[in-house]
Amino acid sequence: MTDESIIGLFTARSESAIAETQRLYGRYFYSIAYGIVWNESDAEEIVNDMYLQAWNTIPPAHPDHLKAFLGRITRQMAIKRLEHNTAKKRGEGQYLSVIEELEECISGDDGEDIPDMLALRDVLNRFLHTLPKDVRGVFIRRYWHMQSIAQIATVCSVSESKVKSQLMRTRKKLRKYLMEEGFSV
Question: Considering the chain, what is the average pLDDT of its residues?
Fold first, then answer.
């Protein structure tokens, strides 16, 4: 079943839309949530909440890429859950350390300036396409999927030190790229 067919099921308010989405992408959404919160029950709850939000969002939304659209929702929900969980524990989790790594390249303005955020997103996408596939994969695993250095090293069959140095070099390139594109870093 295609994304367009599933979106048609959502639009028709057919409950099979959720089942088909889960069949095609359920593991992907779970891996996003689990990679951020590191808790099975929280990850399952986040994915279930994402399906509810998808049901309430489609329509009126008509995403071009269903997997990416719902993956972004899952990621946002997982980050909110992690922030909630770490606030209760007064600890810092994987998410916070990953964000600190990127602070040297990207500074946040609390999301107040939507046009700047959209421009930044476009610049980041262009930057990612300049990277070799393996480097891009490591970067996305770390900063999108919030995977640990050890996980990335295992999946990519390289040493942890190679992952660390590759990420450091990529962040430096990103910083330079952002400056060339007119962003203050």
Answer: 83
